[in-house]
Amino acid sequence: MAMFNKKAVTGFVLFGVCLLAGYSAFGDTNESNQNAVVFKLGSFDRSSFEFASDSPKQPVNFIVGQSNPAKDWYATQPAVLSSASGQTRTDVASAPRAIHFSIDSRPEDRYRLRVSLLIEAASVPALRIDINGRRGMLYLHPKLDYSNGDQGDSFYPAYSHAETTFEFPAGYLKHGENSIAFQAVEQADQAVPDASLTYDAIELDRVTGVGTPNASSALVVPTIFFRQEGGSIKEQVDAFIQSAKPFKAGAEVELAVNGKTYHQNVQGSQDFGEEKVSFLVPEFTKDTHAQLTWKSVGRPQHSDQTISPQKKWTIFIVPHIHVDVGYSDYQPKVAAIQSRDIDEALDMIDKNPSFRYSLDGAWDLEQFLKTHTAADQARAIKAVQEQKLYVPAQYANLLTGFPTSETLIRSLYPSANFSREHGSPFNYANITDVPSYSWSYASVLAAAGIHYLAGGSNNYRAPVLLQGRLNENSPMWWEGPDGNKVLLWYSRIYQQMQMLFGLPPVLDAGRDTLPLFLQMYEHPGYVADETIMYGTQVENTDLFPQQSELAQKWNETYAYPHLKYSGFHDALQSIQQQFGNNIPSIRGDGGPYWEDGIASDAYYAGMERWNEGRAPTAEKFATLTSIVNPRTRADKASLDRMWRNMVLMDEHTWDSYNSTSDPTSMEAVKQLAVKDQYAVNAQALADFITQNTMASLTSAIPVGAGKVIIFNSLNWKRSGLVSIDIDKKTELVDTTTDQKVPFKILQSGPNFDHIQFVATDIPAVGYKVYKMQPSTSPAPSTATQQNLTMENSYYRVTLDPSTGAVKSIYDKQLNHELVNESSPYRFGQYLYVTGGDKASNTVLQYSHVYPKPALEVHPAEGGSLVSVAQTPYGWVARMRSHSVNTPAITSEIRLFDRTKKIEFVEDVEKKDVDTKEGVYFAFPFAMGHPKFEYEIQNGVVNPAKDMYPGAGHEWFSVQHWIALQEGGVSVGLLPLDAGLATFGDINRGQWPDHFGDRPGSVFSYIMNNYWDTNYRAGQGGHFKFHYVLTSASSTNASELSRLGWEEITPLEADIVTTQDKALSSPEGEDHGASPSNSVAGAGSPCVLDPKEDSFLNVDDPNVLFETWKPAEDGNGTILRFLDIGGDQRTVTVHVPLLHIEEAWQSNAVEKDGEKLSLSGDHDFSFVIHPHEIASIRIVGSDACKAN
């Protein structure tokens, strides 16, 4: 996404402190002087917020005391071009802008003009000043800025601040009316696109006391520019000479360095200001003495200075165009543009063999290969093999805090498969636009054999680099929760060539901006003399051919910086070699910022959360089907489509560029429909594959019609709620105990009951058989009460019907109240937050000058108790309430008899509004200063210590659980549908740079529409949110993770009907008959237990069996495991249905490593490390012949 337009703001003036000081021109100043302010426009806060944001339509004449800065002084002034020929072209916008002011008496003493400016475009113009007809030029010496006073700081890699202060004699002014005019002047041989200056503040003071405004001074500055001249390398050294008196045109300036002198002449032709002259000086060493000599007021002047050379930089240009799958245009058009870019890049490589081009994802190549001829496909493949065209590991740029680890891994499969098929490199990843990343992403990449990651970070609504400066500390080893690491290069935005040189590129623009860009790396910790220019154009645009000529044209002029085309891997590898062992390491989570926008689409986001919980079930069952019956094979094409849809759902592009400004436009509506359809498709595929494969598995289980088979895809025995339809007057029997199973009727039709029951002790990666039989007993009834207290052996729960929430939860085992009863919110209470509409404010954008929003929290109210009922599994309470724009909230609280947990099921009916909103469920715990932790894909984050510099601390992206611990009490909260949460308070636009000390409240952040692009403008309809609460004396991360996977991975049910099998099950099957006497499905060599069985056993409960899939190369199957225990140990896996012949430790994209030893015909063992993602390939003989 690219968002560059400054937001219009009027009528606001904020006062701040300027922390950067430019050098003072025109004499020394005495800080003790008491100065009188003549006028002041704006505040010295490195922001143009208080000025008009549009362009003037008539000459600017600002009258002090009458004009309004918000309307009459314009923030940005385009520069006029002052070429070598002296020609200047102006229009109204670039014409001098005058400030008119009065002096009531004869001017005395001297005056000081202070001008603070921002560099927000690919140029550093000079500032021409006219004081009552006297004209002079001032040159700027900007420093990189990270304050984000203007939103351009989020995007522009050379965004800088410059301040100039100079004094002039009182004689420049007069009694009565005066004027000072300003004009930006770009001194270049060709026009620089968008050359301009942006005003921060201007102030004129009368200065009293001792001072010499006529003094002349100089500054000698070695530059980054080196030229080849006369067979040697010479460095350009600039000299800036300042004076309040005119220079004589053609006057000579002499620079002496190392016993040699160099001469230049000044241009003259101005009444005051600065003259700039440049010298080419042979190489010199650090701390070399230099003397500059010139004449001022007819007298020789000298300045002795110590100078040091700059580095001889090599800049690796990585030509690259970011891909948004949508956003700038319809998704199909984006596919066409990105495909065409590959054609154009290949043409440019043919014309300029040194040119290189990097795709932003394997998605780009996929679109190309689907739509091009065999010859063009071969041409592209050859370029990839020869490393002229680069394909990264990732399919697209994902919001990495949202997906599961398996989905993150699957986002690498298309590129890995291409590499496997064509022998091309698979050695780096990049992530563009997305500002910060889940800590687990480092582990996922390392598990796939990727050790280089380039991040082109967009800091809009995400101050990761503005606060953390990781771009200046790149490269760094980023160590994941498992201890594995990737070399991370954080880049301040992408499309850097376009931002620094313009498009098409202009050499003079680079002359202005490269010195600013390289400031990032001019510190002792950056030991290399190479760096990366990340990307060349904004997303989804046709490729400009001129970029392929930039390096050659630049290098013809400059020896250094030397520009060289490259890919990310080659550049990072070269920089790594220069750093050697001096690369720093970081650990921690990025507090992913942009995941907050997902909450603008809560219905489909919730669907995707459940998809990612259920998809591994579909895949495991599909793989098992081929093992149970070798006549079948897994439907890999459907599985691939399922994962591809989930990856695209998790990709960072959600809607169009105008999604909030024009939400009913065809562009916004159609793009959003395509996006949400990914979740719908994935859900449909997961459901189809699961039902299809359960039917195939059932064929191998010797049972007949009237049986209900409950499947468990997780690798531990578990119980859980199951809902099915049964015929009326039917009862359910557990075939392992021959006991009737109590159930609750949720809904009835003419001939059926939709029931809910607890399926108990379902074997790990296995099944259990229940029997339906006619019942002579009356349908089960539900006992109800109107008591506001529910109680079991674990908890006593007190309801608060007026709020639709819970007043108290008392843990009877810990003898402790869990709820903060003095909180303004009840436990599980719905909160609707208004007040974010007034633009601009800090809940909408990160800024140090925008005001904080006046948010108003509207808790649910007007509630009532619907029922308190006793069910077969425990008590269930239902309450109703409402809130602003939320006509109905139905809250169901479930208290389980045999499990220490409480479930909260929230049904929300909400209106679709376009006003800004934040929506939460509050969970205030009785803890004053707890330790917070939350689960990510392969680890646990303590946000007080496990965040990398610049990480987000206002909201957090949670996988399955959040834990708070204090004083011998630990609570675990599982937000199943909505992974976004805030800790301590709601999102108030604070943008904290550290976690700090927070009270023990968790707010499930279920909805917002605070973005102004890309995400939904509003949402309404019916939503459902599930939460699970548990508690203990201390936090047990592995138990919470198992509970989380149980809750998000439903038990699956298959009902055997008369259509399923040709023969009925023999009499007595359920009473101990031999399985051999029962009939399995046709063609299946497997005969399984008719009551319960496991297909696979893992001997370690602290290992998650994540998935089981067909191998991509067809050689066996791949099993993926994830450690949730945190210890190194040996794990043994038993596969009773397979005679295992060979097993290998593989990486996450199925490249084999160490061969594993086998123990027996059915077992293999491997060592797993803390938080490790382990992939195993097994090859075995036909399914059940081992039996």
UniProtKB/TrEMBL annotation:
Q: Where is this region: Disordered?
A: 1060-1084
Tell me the ranges covered by the Glycosyl hydrolases family 38 C-terminal domain, including all copies. Answer: 1102-1175
Q: Which Pfam families match?
A: CBM-like, Glyco_hydro38C2, Glyco_hydro_38C, Glyco_hydro_38N
GO biological process entries: mannose metabolic process; oligosaccharide catabolic process
Enumerate the spans annotated as Glycosyl hydrolase family 38 C-terminal domain.
790-975
- Presence of the UniProt keyword DNA-binding in the record: no
Q: What are the protein's UniProt keywords? A: Signal
Report the protein name in the record: Glycosyl hydrolase family 38
Record organism: Edaphobacter dinghuensis
